[in-house]
Amino acid sequence: MYPIVRNRRLRQNAAIRALVQEHQLSVNDFLVPLFVEEGQGVKEEILSMPGQYRYSLDELPKELAELNDLGLKAVLLFAKTPQSVKDNKGTEAYNPNGLMQRAIKAIKSAQPELLVFTDVALDPYSVYGHDGIVEGGKILNDPTIEVLCKMSVSHADAGADFVAPSDMMDGRVLRIREALDQAGYPDVGILSYAAKYASAHYGPFRDALDSAPAALKDIPTDKKTYQMDPANRKEAIKEALMDQDEGADILMVKPGMPYLDIVRELNHVTDLPIAVYHVSGEYAMVKAAAAKGWIDEQAVVMEQLMSFKRAGASIIATYFAKDAARLLI
Ligand code: PBG
Q: CA 181 from chain center: how many Å?
């Protein structure tokens, strides 16, 4: 008790602060989201995500070499599907020559050591922008899982190290695990978006992939029947434990900062590594405030990333990975 205890003794200079620091960030923590699109020589900036780009496959080697030089070891891959190949059933999602499959191969041939995590959900392939097949105004669960399984196996065929189902259909982790095993891929892992909320923070991402739910009559305009209610905490535990039982290797919480309590909570109930997704809307907010000169971007970013470590995340998917790595190496 004061005056015997003075907490400021451990804060009085940088050396003592470093010695008592409880958490550290490193380049080993980051998963780098990477967007690809069709074309040649394309490096197109995403309007609502300044500093983030969609790359055509021929532009990838340069970008990947940069990631490698920064010590970044894993990418989370998203493909912008041309409108002409979208349908309701996500058929393009498992086309062996689809953009995603070609991108995986391109990455593995340019940087074989780089871990490739692939997003698994139908929204970039769906005419309706939904993560599953739509029928009678509903997003069908079990028929969607069949497509997700084919999609996952096609990613494994192309060389993916981990598939990352982000769709929130019930039971998909078990079925994907079985499909991968049956196809001869027992070592391809599953990072499950276990607690994924129906968040307003995904807007810029949907711009990036042109994958927002369609504004059509009789089609739900939001994802609330499959993504979680932001009001719920116990439900996140239920989702996470189910995905663990079904064979998930890593559990992800998404978005990040508004859901730090969930990251913390999951750490209490599972021994699986926890990942957190610092999503596009979080990125856009920091960038916008920084552009106005209202915040110190670098300091805010590092503080936000540290908050994920403090909450207990071991993997951070963030659009700031390169910026943070530059400061950390
Ligand atoms: C696809 C998917 C989304 C994100 C990752 N995978 C969008 C969504 O669910 O609508 C969002 C990522 C971000 O906002 O950075 N299901």
A: 23
Is residue 196 annotated as a catalytic residue, yes or no? yes
Q: What does the pLDDT look like over 93-130, one tens digit per residue?
A: 999 999 999 999 999 999 999 999 999 999 999 999 99
E strand residue ranges, the chain: 30-36, 43-45, 53-55, 74-79, 115-120, 133-135, 138-140, 162-165, 189-196, 250-254, 274-278, 315-318
227-276 residue pLDDT tens:
999 999 999 999 999 999 999 999 999 999 999 999 999 999 999 999 99
- The residues spanned by each domain of the chain are 33-328
CATH architecture of 33-328: Alpha-Beta Barrel (3.20)
Pairing of the two strands 274-278 and 315-318: parallel
Q: How far is the CA of 202 from the centre of ligand 1 (A)?
A: 6
Selecting among 196, 287, 309, 322, the annotated active-site residue is 196
